[in-house]
Design a protein that fits this description.
The structure is a homodimer.
Chain A lengths: L5 E7 L1 H4 L7 H11 L3 E8 L3 H14 L2 E5 L10 H8 L4 E3 L1 H11 L5 H4 L3 E3 L3 E3 L8 E4 L2 E4 L3 H11 L10 E7 L3 H14 L4 E8 L5 E9 L2 H17 L16
Parallel strand pairs in A: 1-2, 1-3, 3-8
Antiparallel strand pairs in A: 4-5, 6-7, 7-8, 9-11, 10-11
Helix pairs in contact in A: 3-4, 8-9
């Protein structure tokens, strides 16, 4: 696992911290990164405050192979991601020729000074095409700056995903049963010890009785190891007299 | 605003970073904090890794007035929050008498070594009662450690909320209309400049045409200032020939 590239997500936006907007971008990016063998190790959510953006971008970009930011690249006064990321890298904020051309095509006679602001990017950055709404994202070194609106963010992320260098895909298996954690924790810990190359998570659920139970998630990059550990968990459920529920269907991200 | 207490949330859990589980605790806590005048300034999501928990708890507790952690306080091997927080504070991990008594009452003859582990807490911590499933949370100084399961987390958070010292409640008004950001960004920026004690956010939406528009959110702790800025935004919408949509209903957190 030591050669698996790492990543962090930085969500920039007062609307998430205020509880107004429920972020769904983290889940999408997380699912996509697993498919290409990149390990998401941290997410931070911060407000639209320049000093915090600069500090956090600089902390994350030094620590992780990839950093993905979402939010703050629109046309209004609270969109300060491009200017802040430029400062984090000590680069000028300049009008990106290609981004401006894309805005001209998209907005035509509706292109005004407000919209033209969306072509301002850190000098010498790369661009991320936006097939949905015309305003490009950008990247500087290992920091990729994406839109906050989920449909746009997903389109941008799908643009860059093939360019990222990952490792073996993460594979996960979920086993759901009607046992409760407190009855099997010691047996599950023993399985984890015997299968150190996988991670086994235990996620209980208490809905309305009798809908009480637990899901075990076995995850790793070595398919044989994941399947062996999954077998061991299935056996454990049987030994403890549990009933296995039907496997959950995977309706993951479209990347 | 300088006297408004600050807060951070630390979500501990591989299941969020893997995309398996969609966190809903941040939104709940965020909404509750607004009501009691505490400003949520940062959220971090990290895996069940001791070194990261220790480092992050220590970073956040020095920076913010309140820190709330969610996740990792159950009965299985991947529940390492209590042990990690004890290490962050250089405290021993001991069996909490009251927490054990609560487990005895809740589980009776089903109390075993696995479940008893849920009474292990940092020495001299305070406890957070759990009216849902018997296993208590705890707090050390300004760090409050809550369950990850939303129903339990909410019950625990509601227990501690009356004990937190806040400021004036945050009030927010949402104005939704059929204008687009690029047409009004300059006018909106002028309103923000004229009303510096409030924050004005702009959140466009592109669903299927013609369902395209923008929501403006005016937020602050001074009610008169929030209403004055809201008035100014409403006027702006009219001046630009926009149609106001019906106000969204607030179906916020039950705290």
């Amino acid at each position: 696992m030591s050669t698996t590239p790492t990543a962090a997500i930085l969500v920039i936006g007062n609307e998430i911290l205020s509880g107004r907007t429920h972020d769904i971008n983290v889940k999408y990016i997380a699912e996509c990164l697993k498919k290409v063998g990149i390990q998401l190790l941290e997410v931070r959510i911060i407000p639209d405050v320049e000093a915090m953006i600069i500090e956090t971008v600089n902390a994350l970009r030094k620590r992780y192979v990839y950093v993905f930011t979402t939010g703050g690249i629109g046309a209004t006064h609270d969109d300060i991601t491009a200017a802040s990321v430029a400062k984090a890298f000590n680069r000028a904020l300049i009008e990106h020729e290609g981004a401006l051309a894309a805005l001209v095509v998209h907005y035509q006679e509706r292109l005004n000074d407000n919209r033209r602001r969306m072509a301002l990017m850190p000098a010498d950055c790369g661009y991320i095409a936006n097939p949905v709404s015309g305003a490009w994202g950008f990247f500087v070194e290992n920091v990729y700056c994406l839109a906050g609106m989920p449909s746009v963010m997903q389109a941008m992320f799908n643009e860059i995903l093939p360019t990222l260098k990952g490792g073996a895909p993460f594979i996960s298996q979920t086993i759901t049963c009607d046992l409760v954690e407190g009855d099997i924790a010691h047996a599950l810990a023993a399985i984890q010890e015997n299968h150190p190359s996988v991670q086994i998570g235990s996620y209980p659920f208490y809905r309305k009785p009798p809908d009480i139970g637990v899901s075990f998630v076995v995850q790793g990059q070595d398919k044989a190891a994941v399947l062996a550990a999954t077998d061991a968990v299935n056996q454990m459920v049987i030994v403890f007299g549990g009933t296995l529920f039907k496997a959950e269907s995977a309706d993951g991200a479209s990347c």
